[in-house]
Amino acid sequence: MTELDAFPEDWDRALAVVAHPDDMEYGAASAVARWTAQGRWVGYVLVTDGEAGISTMPPEQARHIRREEQVASCAVVGVTDVEFLGHPDGVVVEGLELRRHLAAEIRRYRPDVVLSINHHDSWGGPSWNHADHRAVGRALLDAVRDAANPWVFPDSGEAWDGVRFTAFNASPQATHFVDVTDTFDAGVESLQCHATYLRHLQGDMANPEAFLRGGAEAAGQAAGVGLATTFEVIG
Ligand SMILES: [Zn+2]
Question: Is the distance from CB of 63 to CB of 33 less than 8 angstroms?
């Protein structure tokens, strides 16, 4: 990992935009807990309901459970504004429709900072990122620009050019760190709220404490703090 800078914290409002319930909880939630404890506003926009995430449960049943688990997960880290856009899970399309939808959300919430998760093809090394993460991340960067331009999507709210940067958690090209030593436990608890989903998972990711601690210790070592989470900052 290359040298990391401290994540700027001279802002008031952050809007997190991710594809699925649980995306923010695999690393970013502990940073959100730090920021809300400092008095900052953080809101979440979920592009899908994550209804295709549990292979043994039909989507119409999973949809409600995953929404409820996300709302509970948000409450743990001080987030009460949670919105679901209802795009179909697993087949999110990067394009004008998604850009318009995300630009409208950015214009409505008027954030200083936009948050999401890794949108690159890989998580680092030979791995393949989820199609929805790639689609949402790329459309989101476009939508931040779209939101600032009054002539783009003029019927989708008043232009907002106040976004200073977009930051992607769990990126293989991390540039910044957040010290989450004091809020790590809240991040774990936030992930544990996805109980139905976690019961379905196998392997490392099914154990919130161990999975998150491994990542936070490695990031903390790179950053020179106890526990950390990292972001790629663009903008
Ligand atoms: Zn996801």
Answer: no
Flag whether the pTM goes above 0.70.
yes
Angle at alpha carbon of residue 112, lines to 123 and 175, rounded to 5°: 30
Å from CA of 20 to ligand 1 middle? 5
Q: Give helix 184-192 / helix 29-37 axis angle, nearest 10°.
A: 120
* 197 CA from centroid of ligand 1 (Å): 12
**Cα-to-centroid distance, 129 and ligand 1 (Å):** 9
Domains of the chain: 5-234 (3.40.50.10320)
> Ligand 1 centre from 118 Cα, in Å?
10
Task: Give the mean pLDDT per block of 10 residues along the chain (235 residues).
Answer: 89 98 98 98 98 96 98 98 98 98 98 98 96 98 98 98 98 98 98 96 90 97 97 97
What is the 172 CA–ligand 1 centroid distance (Å)? 16
d(CA 72, CA 196): 12
